[in-house]
Amino acid sequence: MLHSPPLALAPDARAQAATRIHQSWARCADLDPALLADPNPLPRADLDMRREAHRQLLRLAEPSLGALSALAGSMHSVVLLADASGLILHERGSHSFQDKARRVALQPGVNWAEPLRGTNAIGTALHDGRAVRIHGPEHFLACNSILSCHAAPIFSATGEILGILDLSGPADDMRDYVLALVQRMARGISDQILGDSPLRRLDFRLGRGPEDDTHALLLLDDDARIAGANEAALQALDADWSRLIGTPCAQWIAGPLHARDTPLHRHDGHPLTGRLIPPPHAPARPAPAAQHPAPASRPTPRPAARALPEPDAVSAPLLDQAVRALDSGLAVLLCGETGTGKEVLSRHIHARSAWSAGPFIAINCAALPEHLVESELFGYEPGAFTGARREGARGLLRQAQGGVLFLDEIGDMPLALQTRLLRVLQEREVQPLGSDKRIPLEFGLVSASHQDLKALVAQGRFRADLYYRLQDMPLHLPPLRGRSDLAAFIEDAYQALEGSLSGDALALLARHGWPGNYRELFSVLRRLRCQHPGPDPVMADGLPVDIAGGPLAGAVSPASAPSNGSPGHDPIASAATALQKDEEPEAGTDLRALERQAIEQTLRACQGNISRAARHLGIHRSTLYRKLQ
Fold this sequence. Notes:
Number of helices: 24
Number of strands: 18
Structural class: alpha+beta
Helix content: 25-40%
Largest sheet: 6 strands, antiparallel
Shape: globular
Radius of gyration: 27 Å
């Protein structure tokens, strides 16, 4: 059911937003009502494929999603991440509100682009490329008026929209600071994407003081030309992506570029402070040609598509064994807990083996939809089945020709498919669906699993003959907690992010069990660096609660405020003092409401910046997060 368009709420602050909403309503006015009916979500298998396609975005967004979901839970709201088409990929937050959101199809697997759901925060932010709040009756569909939604785009280094971050809650609880907070979190994800680039970064800010923790970032190629920028850089240089990309950095910023804070200035003379950050990882060194001669039938060598971290003292011996085995025609099986770096090691094996000139094809056996596994792996001829592409498909196994095939999570492959895969691996030829021809294959084989394949064989869940075909050379990757040099490794990893740790913080990090291994560690370290961008070392009370061992106390304990009722008593100041002492409000003083008022006023004044609000309140960020919950 549709309703009348909303009226502008104010001629000043809301005028521009109201104009955008009216423009969106005008775009939606001619939509076919049948297109706006509540859609059915994508099937789980198809949604998993979309998530796999956006794995990097989901990985880099994880710290921001985690931080924002803590707030969403306390606000009876949900955090959503949509892709560039408007399809919701991820959801977390209040379980009670998730049930309400599903009544209007606000859930993973549903596309909320404007042509499908009318005016809404995700769709309108996607269309305009700007953050927006759509509250209650501002939604085009009357059924969506139960929502108050705040969305902001996530940009690539060159300005393309990669996704939309959204926080949605009940329409009867609107908070002015939420949109600014979502926008800041979305920009943080964009910065993470820039930080994941193999290019050099110029990190700079206006002026030469540390008062603003917002950093402008430029990506520079080998010729010092600008290859990417974040939104802060666009604002600092008063430019847009179309004007910046491909131009010399010296055209915009003058001064010596060093790996330390350096006085710089804009082309108009405005002072800047910046430093040049080298690429996060050095590219893998190619193996000597004499040691690993490439077969004559291999394709022409081409440069590696992505940079890899150099193997350390733990993985280097395993790498040498694996390369020798692969070059001898043996299949390599990597075993180890989740997050121990099996895929990273497999890419090193490819890069240093005789197969390095060919492609590296990674197949996540746990993520392939069962009804599409055969067509995805083996390919198919034109017209092989209903819905097949007119030109057919080669399949992933044929794409690995002349390179390395990496079968990740092989223990999750369906039994019925294991038989066909075994035949392909034994005969090294594949028969596409709908074809009577067998096509020869030649590739190196690396498999990986976090499960005990021997136990799966004993349980009848994995074929014994396939297991013995895969484990010519079994290698076990030890967990992170088993490293004898764990503290030094963590310290070096954080220093590579241009940060430092106090002794107490390092001891707590080294004592943690790290069930997610390297993946969990690097996620935590990147989050710490995002939260502590300055040169000061991270202290123990700045670590996540699950690592520090419990709730963290406030960082500051100023003198007590005057007692209630005394001359000059400021109730909000009293609430702030209670916050600084990290204590509960006293009974009968109604300080809880004042405490909440102090927090919300400070968040509003700081435009949703949690770090800055915590500093103004004189408490630690973790205390503020806990108070918000």
